[in-house]
Amino acid sequence: xxxxxxxxxxxxxxxxxxxxxxxxxxxxxxxxxxxxxxxxxxxxxxxxxxxxxxxxxxxxxxxxxxxxxxxxxxxxxxxxxxxxxxxxxxxxxxxxxxxxxxxxxxx
Length: 107
What we know:
By secondary structure, this protein is mainly alpha-helical. Helix content is 62%, strand content 4%.
């Protein structure tokens, strides 16, 4: 899929990368992470399309469906751990790498 406005898309992705520092500084807070992740998905879907390889790569890095051991909640409505391979800090590290790669591929 051709990106309609690569400069604008790159700026939006870079803004989401910039916000990762704020998330790390907040603990990171699971509610803030979920809001950031939702917005990041909106940006990527609007840029590349829902069924794109770019969105799939991001989801693989930052998202996992279902309930994990030691995590409270049901399905996707859960409190996220901060540490561990699927904790928020690890998700942010992986997401940052993917987002930087996607931004570098624009313009």
